[in-house]
Structures are given as structure tokens and as C-alpha cells.
Design a protein that fits this description.
This protein is an alpha/beta fold. 44% of the residues lie in helices and 15% in strands. It contains eleven helices and ten strands. A six-stranded mixed sheet has the order 1-2-10-7-8-9, with helices on both faces. The protein has a four-stranded parallel sheet with strand order 5-4-3-6, sandwiched between helices. Helix 9 links the parallel strand 8 and strand 9. Helix 10 packs across helix 11. The radius of gyration is 19 Å and the shape is globular. The structure holds pyridoxal-5'-phosphate (PLP).
């Protein structure tokens, strides 16, 4: 089948819930609204990166990697979930953070707390940008290679996107089984593996769905490039071009981004609070709150089909919320 030639290690042992959010839907004028709950997974407190890690770690194991390296900010969900998955699989993991050790250790909350409990080896490369951090990780890996080890660096966007191609298939079969008439699907868009993987997977069904990608990081021109690269990479890796053109079934928005990545807007904070107050579950601020704000606006302005089911794809990241208290001052 689709993934039969691609190394994969199962980290989710069941589907994540597809939850009807009736209170919120009613509040938004009677929209039939569902949430795909990728915040609900058994391992490591869950989140989108676990689906990507099924393929990243699949590749690592197929290469007989002796050390898995993951680089990110101290608040990174990707670092936490890589460390948790490696713990479960018994693989050595090294985290590379940009930032200062003393600062992070002094405020051990959210993802840094979980990494600490996981007792994963962590290296700090100081206050550098993501490109310098990536170079540091590459040098670290090259050094391990010289010592006869086999390092694997987490993060290839096309390999990671395979997790969300699989997620699209899961979502569609779940909706079919539960007799849900799904049409508009909304998801946060950042580095790309998650949103573009999902878009590719949904495009396999022709023009059955409309996908709304709400930026949490990049403006349109940069994201266009990201999307093209990952999409073409998926067509090649899976040796399959979906019948629908991705541009025909998706809309990209960078107007809910505010001042940029991880800089919350007032509307996003309100959207996160509204979800909790209507439904009793949570959306962190960096990714999901902005996408929620976008979806609420699109429903209000009539840009989500009123007559059919809509789905917000919640990508998790809930532990990050514990370090975001300062934003909830309203
Ligand atoms: C990393 C992350 C995203 C963005 O995923 P990309 O694949 O980089 O677009 C969204 N939500 C959460 C919770 C994340 O941790």
C-alpha cells in the first residue's frame, strides 16, 4: 500500500479522537464543528510531532542509528516528543537547544521540565538563530561519525510530512465510519510537514475537501516555497501524484499571524480561552490559538460552508501552555 516501502515505527497505538464540539458550534451560529484531537495520545503527552516521528525514527532505525539528535528551542514540542519516543524505544537521544542552560534550568516548566524528567542529554549552543543551531547539530553529528557512531538528525520535512499523509487517511476513514459530512478543514501552518502532509493526504481524495492553512510563522511567499518543496518531495517519495492540485483545494492565510512566530495576538488568546470555556480542552498559543482565531473569523464571515461539517485539526503542544501564562492577562 501507500507506505509499504517506507520505514515506520508505530508510536500511536490508536486513532486520535474526532470530537463534536456542539457548544462551540452553536455559539458560532450553528456550525457543525469537530476537532481532530492530536493533543490526545498516550506517549509523551502527545502532539503532531509524534506522527512525524513514526517516520523519522523509522528511518533512524533502518539506518541503524546509534544516536538520535534533535535541535530546537527549550520550549520545543518536537524535542520533548523525540526524547519521549526514544525513551520508549530505548534509543539514545541528544537534544541541542539554542538558549542558555542557566536560564532554562532556573525556570523548569512545561517542555523543559518534561525533558529534565526524561533525563535526556542536553547541549546548549547559546543565543543563536535556527540556522546556526542546525549547523551546530550537523557538526555534532559529524563528530559522532568520526568516532564510529551512526547519528541521525531529526527533521527532514518530507519524511516528517508522511506522518500527516497518514493522518489525513485516518481522518477521512474516521469521518466516513462516523457518518460525518466533512468539508472544511482548518490547521495551523508553520514549518510545513504537518499542514502540507495533511494537504497532500486530503488531495488524494480529489476535490472532496477544502483545507485552510493558517500561518503561525511565515508570510505567503516563503510558505509557497515550503509547500512546493514538501509536496513535490511527497509525490516523489510515495511515487504518487494526487488527482487534485493542492492550490485548488487549499487557502493560505498570513493575516492572523500578528507580529510573527510565537508572538501571540489578543484575538488568539481570546480564541484559546473561548475553546476552553465552551468545550473544556485547551489550545496552546504559538500554533493553535492563531489558527482558532482564523477559523472563528472564517466561520463568522461565511468562508466556511455552513451546510457541511467543519473540522479544526488541533496539533497538540499542550505542555507549552504552562510556560505561556503571561499572555493570559485578560
Ligand atoms: C511544531 C508544531 C506545529 C507546526 O508543525 P509544522 O509541521 O512545523 O508545520 C504545530 N503545532 C504544534 C503543537 C507543534 O509543536
Amino acid at each position: 500500500m501507500l507506505f509499504s516501502k517506507i520505514p515506520r515505527i508505530r508510536l500511536l497505538d490508536k486513532e486520535t479522537p474526532l470530537t463534536l464540539t456542539k457548544n462551540l458550534g452553536d455559539y458560532l451560529g450553528g456550525q457543525e464543528l469537530y476537532f481532530k484531537r492530536d493533543d490526545v495520545m498516550e506517549l509523551g503527552m502527545g502532539g503532531n510531532k509524534l506522527r512525524c516521528l513514526e517516520f523519522w525514527l523509522g528511518e533512524a532505525v533502518s539506518q541503524k542509528a546509534s544516536t538520535v539528535i534533535v535541535a530546537g528551542l527549550p520550549v520545543s514540542n518536537q524535542c520533548r516528543l523525540t526524547a519521549a519516543a526514544c525513551a520508549k524505544l530505548g534509543i539514545k537521544c541528544v537534544i541541542i537547544h539554542n538558549g542558555e542552560k542557566t536560564e532554562v534550568e532556573a525556570n523548569r516548566v512545561g517542555n523543559p521540565l518534561l525533558n529534565h524528567i526524561l533525563s535526556v542529554e542536553t547541549i546548549y549552543c547559546g543565543n543563536v538563530d535556527e540556522y546556526e543551531r542546525a549547523r551546530f547539530a550537523k557538526d555534532y553529528a559529524d563528530n559522532l561519525t568520526k568516532q564510529g557512531e551512526i547519528p541521525y538528525i531529526i527533521g527532514d520535512p518530507v519524511i516528517g510530512a508522511l506522518g500527516y499523509v497518514a493522518a489525513a487517511l485516518e481522518l477521512v476513514s474516521q469521518a466516513e465510519r462516523e457518518n460525518i459530512d466533512l468539508y472544511d478543514i482548518v490547521i495551523s501552518a508553520s514549518g510545513g510537514p504537518t499542514s502540507v502532509g495533511l494537504l497532500y493526504g486530503l488531495a488524494l481524495f480529489g476535490k472532496s475537501f477544502r483545507v485552510h492553512l493558517i500561518s503561525a510563522e511565515y508570510k505567503r511567499d516563503i510558505f509557497d516555497n515550503i509547500m512546493t518543496n514538501i509536496y513535490e518531495g511527497l509525490c516523489k517519495t510515495l511515487d504518487l501524484t494526487p488527482p487534485a492540485n493542492p492550490k485548488d483545494i487549499s487557502v493560505f492565510y498570513d493575516n492572523y499571524l500578528g507580529e510573527g512566530y510565537a508572538k501571540p495576538t489578543k484575538e488568539a488568546i481570546q480564541a484559546s480561552a473561548l475553546l476552553a470555556q465552551k468545550e473544556g480542552f485547551f489550545a496552546e498559543v504559538t500554533y493553535n490559538a492563531k489558527a482558532l482565531d482564523g477559523m472563528f473569523d472564517l466561520i463568522k464571515s461565511g468562508n466556511i460552508c455552513k451546510k457541511r461539517g467543519a473540522c479544526f485539526y488541533l496539533t497538540g503542544g499542550t505542555p507549552a501552555l504552562f510556560a505561556q501564562g503571561k499572555y493570559f492577562n485578560a
